[in-house]
From TrEMBL:
<keyword id="KW-0560">Oxidoreductase</keyword>
<dbReference type="InterPro" id="IPR057326">
    <property type="entry name" value="KR_dom"/>
</dbReference>
<dbReference type="InterPro" id="IPR002347">
    <property type="entry name" value="SDR_fam"/>
</dbReference>
<dbReference type="GO" id="GO:0016491">
    <property type="term" value="F:oxidoreductase activity"/>
</dbReference>
<dbReference type="InterPro" id="IPR036291">
    <property type="entry name" value="NAD(P)-bd_dom_sf"/>
</dbReference>
<protein>
    <submittedName>
        <fullName>Putative short chain dehydrogenase/reductase family oxidoreductase</fullName>
    </submittedName>
</protein>
<dbReference type="Pfam" id="PF00106">
    <property type="entry name" value="adh_short"/>
</dbReference>
<feature type="domain" description="Ketoreductase">
    <location>
        <begin position="24"/>
        <end position="178"/>
    </location>
</feature>
Length: 288
């Protein structure tokens, strides 16, 4: 699969409906803006009982919650919970709160991610590695037992959705340079930061496929899948150099999806069937 997106579908199907979402509980990370915010808004509008907006910036989260309530007319559904993926302690505290405070978890959409052009570290690794790979997987592993128990008690299938990127499939040369010791080499001072984002998404994709293989649906009651939202009009490239931002903006203007349209891919993952387990989903269709 190539990361080149000369054209992509627009007007994707909205699969978050009252039939699929009413009375259910959802967690969306990075839900204060962009794709996460639009996905949370759709879930609330579709009749979810509870939508947890897991955010690093509480002020921004409260603003997002107010916007959801105003646009949907649904109050008391969206909740703001603190989650900073740059901190393992924050991830552990969030997972513990999930275990003790939520009766059920119908889907977790791990949407939060970061792309940087300057070197920043967190928890002993360069920040995109910590956020996009290690903390994302840590949260999944800590929450999975609760999701398994919830699925069993409620007699339903739950979903664990990881937002990744097709760009991860177009970094073969960069991967060959680091594959023998990926964490050490991505953390090295010689690492090209502009190559790091797709590499982290490739690592996440490989790790999630392995996790899905270790956790069959008939044993855990949880569908684990990956979604790529495609090229969207969001602020993901805001930390890139000016020249890169200009190039991305030009490309996005030609074929980018709106954040609302792109969020529908996340929602597809959150309601997709058992056949999506371990799969890479794109444009609201099952992939490989």
């Amino acid at each position: 699969m190539s990361a080149t997106i000369p054209t992509q579908r627009h007007g994707l199907p909205l699969l978050a409906t009252p039939e699929t979402c009413a009375g259910r509980t959802y967690i969306v990370t990075g839900a204060n803006s962009g794709l996460g915010l639009e996905a949370a808004r759709h879930l609330a509008n579709a009749g979810a009982t509870k939508v947890i907006l897991a955010v690093r910036n509480i002020t921004a989260g409260e603003k997002a919650k107010d916007g959801i309530e105003t646009s949907t007319g649904k109050t008391g559904v969206a909740e703001i919970w603190s989650l900073d993926l740059a901190s393992y302690d924050s991830v552990k505290a969030f997972a513990q709160r999930v275990k003790t405070k939520l009766d059920r978890i119908d889907a977790v959409v791990e949407n939060a991610g970061v792309a940087l052009s300057q070197r920043v570290e967190a928890e002993g690794h360069v920040l995109p590695v910590t956020v996009n790979v290690l903390s994302t997987l840590l949260l999944a592993v800590l929450i999975l037992p609760k999701m398994r128990d919830s699925a069993r008690r409620h007699g339903t299938i739950h979903r664990l959705v990881f937002v990744t990127s097709v760009t991860g499939f177009d970094c073969q040369e960069a991967w060959r340079n680091i594959h023998e010791a990926p964490l050490a080499k991505m953390d090295s001072e010689d690492m090209n930061m502009m190559e790091l984002y797709p590499l982290t998404k490739l690592m996440l994709t490989m790790a999630v496929r392995h996790l899905a293989a270790l956790t069959p649906v008939d044993r855990a009651g949880v569908v684990i899948n990956l979604v790529c939202p495609g090229l969207c009009k969001t602020a993901m490239s805001r930390n890139a150099p000016a020249e890169v931002q200009e190039n991305v903006a030009e490309f996005v203007a030609k074929c980018g999806r709106t954040a609302e349209d792109g969020s529908r891919t996340l929602l597809h993952g959150a309601v997709a069937g058992i056949e999506s387990h371990g799969c890479f989903l794109y444009s609201c269709q099952n992939g490989e």
